[in-house]
């Protein structure tokens, strides 16, 4: 048999461990002053505001590097998405270290006479000129494909976001 209790306390203070074994409704502001752990899926029925930066899991964002001489890199998610995520990539222009600069001189991509600043400009222009796409997208990952082999290690930042009923606008 189930039982219920109703009481009209204006304030309720519970010290120590508490468990709620059935559905609960809170109709006012609720504050949690310590870490909150949701063990199952959570749904927010309205907008959500964050006052500080948001941290997400490693399947939501990261970096991928196409090695010099290669045309592609595969990104594999640790956990499969329920639906194919929307994926964005952005090519990064690295700031050359002295070691990278020396390697580019040895490979003939840069001139020791022109200097590291000129070499940095060559690298920046190479990134500007690079053509690349996201291909082979699935719920398990995607591939970044360059139109030509990379002339140096080319790093991309990426994000993958699951969107329920994603809108597709057509021309």
Distance between the termini: 61 Å
Number of helices: 2
The main β sheet shows up as: 3 strands, antiparallel
Any low-confidence stretches, pLDDT <50, length ≥5?
none
Provide the gyration radius in Å: 26 Å
H/E element order = EEEHHEEE
Spatial order of the strands in the main sheet? Answer: 1-6-3
Query: What percent strand?
Result: 15-25%
- Supply the helix-strand structural class: alpha+beta
| Extended strand count | 6
Roughly how much helix do the residues carry, as a percent range?
A: 10-25%
**Based on CA inertia axes, which overall geometry fits?**
elongated
Q: Could you report the average pLDDT, rounded to the nearest whole number?
A: 91
Question: Would you mind describing this structure in some detail?
Answer:
With 171 residues, the chain is an alpha+beta fold. It is 13% helix and 22% strand. The protein has helices at residues 98-106, 116-129; strands at residues 61-66, 72-76, 86-91, 132-138, 141-146, 154-161. The protein has a three-stranded antiparallel beta sheet, with no helix packed on it. A three-stranded antiparallel beta sheet has the order 2-5-4, with no helix packed on it. A hairpin with a 2-residue loop joins β4 (132-138) and β5 (141-146). It is elongated, with a radius of gyration of 26 Å. The model has no long low-confidence stretch (mean pLDDT 91).
């Amino acid at each position: 048999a189930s039982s219920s209790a109703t009481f009209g306390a204006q304030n309720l203070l519970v010290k120590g461990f508490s468990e709620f074994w059935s559905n609960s409704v809170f109709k006012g502001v609720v504050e949690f002053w310590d870490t909150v752990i949701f063990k199952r899926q959570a749904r927010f029925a309205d907008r959500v505001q964050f006052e500080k930066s948001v941290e997400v899991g490693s399947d939501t964002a990261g970096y991928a590097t196409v090695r010099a001489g290669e045309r592609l890199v595969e990104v594999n998610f640790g956990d499969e998405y329920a639906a194919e995520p929307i994926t964005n990539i952005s090519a990064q222009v690295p700031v050359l270290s002295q070691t990278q600069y020396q390697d580019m001189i040895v490979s003939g991509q840069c001139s020791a006479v022109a200097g590291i600043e000129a070499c940095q400009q060559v690298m920046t222009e190479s990134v500007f000129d690079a053509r690349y796409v996201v291909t082979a997208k699935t719920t398990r990952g995607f591939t970044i494909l360059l139109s030509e082999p990379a002339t140096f290690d080319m790093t991309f930042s990426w994000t993958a976001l699951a969107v329920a009923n994603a809108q597709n606008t057509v021309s």
